[in-house]
Amino acid sequence: DDVRGKPAPAAAKPPAARTLKVGPGQKYSKLSQSLRDAREGDVIEIDSAGDYAGDVCLIARDNLTIRGVGKQRAKFPAAGKHCKGKAIWVISGANVTVENIELSGARVADKDGAGIRAEGKGLTVRNCRFHDCQDGILGGAGVRLIEYSEFSECGLDGRSHNLYIGSIDKLIFRHNYSHHAKVGHLLKSRAK
């Protein structure tokens, strides 16, 4: 009850999470299209049979799960494109989970082109592959959980690396394989 003795209004119930499907024969042929309709908490499933070359994206919604489905990882080669001069995917939303995705070929003018540029708080990366980028994953805030993933052939000039995790609260890096960086570290971290 409120101070006048009247019943307090009921809190608005958040909409139920939905599953958006991306790929051949689906409503969305590209991840970037599905992100226009995505709401907080949604799951986006990407059919690994699709062609996602050059499908660079800003992922701004919180609590999304982006998951490759099918016989292999869903592949996102940069194909000469980038989002905001930073990455294949720029993730500014909080608590985003990325699973079963392959990102490759990220290049930008400042030589810090990442598969994922992590700008939001909290990111989980699971069963993914990053290769032939200037950086596999770059940046971040909050907590990063990276597991069961592979990083290779990244780095360019000693300032870029297979992974470069910035000054975040906590990094959990387990069951991964980071190898054959061109130049730079297999894993560079400033996590507390």
Give the SSE string.
Answer: EHEEEEEEEEEEEEEEEEE
Structural class: mainly beta
Beta percentage is: 35-45%
- Please report the distance between the alpha carbons of the first and last residues: 44 Å
State mean pLDDT (0 to 100 scale): 92
Q: What's the story with the biggest beta sheet?
A: 7 strands, parallel
Please give the count of helices: 1
Structure in words:
With 192 residues, this protein is mostly beta strands. The chain contains 1 helix and 18 strands. The strands form 3 sheets. Strands 1-2-4-7-10-13-16 form a 7-stranded parallel sheet, with no helix packed on it.
Defining key terms:
192 residues, mainly beta, 7-stranded parallel β-sheet
Annotate the secondary structure layout.
Layout: E1 19-22, H1 31-37, E2 43-47, E3 57-59, E4 65-69, E5 74-77, E6 87-91, E7 96-99, E8 101-104, E9 114-118, E10 121-126, E11 129-131, E12 135-138, E13 141-147, E14 150-152, E15 163-165, E16 170-174, E17 177-179, E18 188-189
Task: Provide a short characterization of the protein structure.
The chain is mainly β. 4% of the residues lie in helices and 39% in strands. It has 1 helix and 18 strands.
